[in-house]
Amino acid sequence: MALPKGVHRVRRKLASGKSRYHFYAWRGGTKFWIDDIPDPKDHDFHVAFAEAVERPQPQVLMIPTMVDMFLSSAARAKGPRSFADQQKWLLRFAAHFHDAPAVIFEERGSRGEMNNWRAQWQHSPKQHDMAGTHAVRVLNWAVEEGFLSEHHCNKLPRLYQVDRSEVVWTPSDREAINAKAPDWVRRLLCAACETGLRPGDLIKLTRAAVELTPHGRRLRVRTNKRRRLAHIPITPALSEVIDTTPSDRILILTNASGGPLTEHRASEGLRQWRDKVGLSRDLRLQDCRGTAATRLLNSGLSLSEIANHMGWSIRHAANVIEHYAQVSPDETDAVMVKLAKAKGGGI
């Protein structure tokens, strides 16, 4: 027996590997039946269809339309790179659920469907988690905007676990780079270790970010990721980087030819020289943030100010600084004394 004219059938794969079929009165319309077979023969199936067709047919928000609306909204990612990543994953999400209305995520079973979709990236835990992160973000937005009453995909289990809090650039690591690397790499490493800025913020630094204070100078930077305003003390080492920037350059950090750096080139350039000088640890440009936390503590910032700047918890900031002191024997005593004062007897 053929399906009634107009019925839209959607096949969903279950975690068990079996299939389940969802039936809608029309494409994007009211769901009126769920079955394990593609062509139900049950009399109640036809009764349910008839009742669904008789109901008013409100305009239904389909998932691809919801994604398009989100990507055109003020809630979308602000930075070019973040938006490109967000768009890539959400278009994949929309393509997979192209024939489904957004309201399917108000059903508890949708959590399993979400997990089935992102399971195709199980070979890459980071991509697996990224798929879920972006999809949940658009569902949260849909709830906030009133397009959905709720969804059941919060706190999805994650596969990717990484903790680089104990990976920091020590004075000896920096000395090894400074002894052999070209000037542009040395300047990049110094600025990263003295400011704690992410690569995307480092490559945009200009003299316009320098402000005078009653006791010296500081950098005033609106960070790219969180759009927060950060005020960073200019240490003597950072001061040298700023003051030796050629007067005809706008950017403080450039590539070997004096041109703009990209995030990839900055990270890759430092990685290449890390390997050339024989540093055995997997040090990355991002790992300079742990070193910078200690520099900022030495410059007089409180733990809460450091944590806010880094986007960390106060406890995490204290743990990172403590680890830095442990692997930098020359600085252990002075850093630990300042850290104890900053904690004030507790975090």
UniProtKB/TrEMBL annotation:
Q: Does the keyword Endoplasmic reticulum apply?
A: no
Q: Which GO terms describe its biological process?
A: DNA integration; DNA recombination
* A Pfam family: Phage_integrase
Q: Please provide the record's keywords in A-Z order.
A: DNA integration, DNA recombination
Q: Does the keyword Repeat apply?
A: no
Q: Which GO terms describe its molecular function?
A: DNA binding
Identify the domain of life: Bacteria
State the protein's name: Phage integrase family protein
Protein's organism: Roseovarius gaetbuli
